[in-house]
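Record type: monomer structure entry
Structure origin: computed from sequence
Chain ID: A
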Amino acid sequence: MNYPIITPPFEIKSFVLLTKKEAKQHFQWFMETKESRIRQLEDFIIQSGYSISLDKTPESLIGLWKWYEDQIEWVDKTEKEIADESASIPERLREVVPINTKKLSVQTLALGLDISVYWGETMIDNNSGVHWELKTSPKKLDGVNRPQLIFDAAHGLCTYPPTMIHVCTLKSSEEKNEKRLFDLFKKWSRIARGKPILN
């Protein structure tokens, strides 16, 4: 069963190179489709035989991540991908820097992306002063020209949820922890309330 990938009805070659107008167009598309993406994710989970309600409660994140950890899939990189990665490493380091011959599957990445949307919406639903916003600068910002989650109580601190979900995915591929997404929610909920992060 393949997960349908929702893509914008316009071409994006590089987010970093988007004009402000193009970035705003993508942001508007994101805001218009985020709820349908969550419904699609929930439908897919049910079709897989797992019962969960994506009702934007913090507890739903536990069941969602428990299901997702069993969906994480690694596939072989192509010879070209391996060669390109090797070529990007300075020659003097090629003997000591290992080349990973595996990568996360497209379906895993697509699921992770929509889970990041759901996580963001759960943050917004359960914490005041949290919202989606477009950041077009600085260009080195993680997720520049893409929807960022903004925390008013933390003086407008922003974060790009897909990166956090990607990191969680890598961790869960090594060691499962069904509360990983829930713990991330708790950490950022403290930030949303203007409180220090606890380790």
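Annotation 1: The mean pLDDT is 92.
Annotation 2: The first strand starts at residue 74 and ends at 76.
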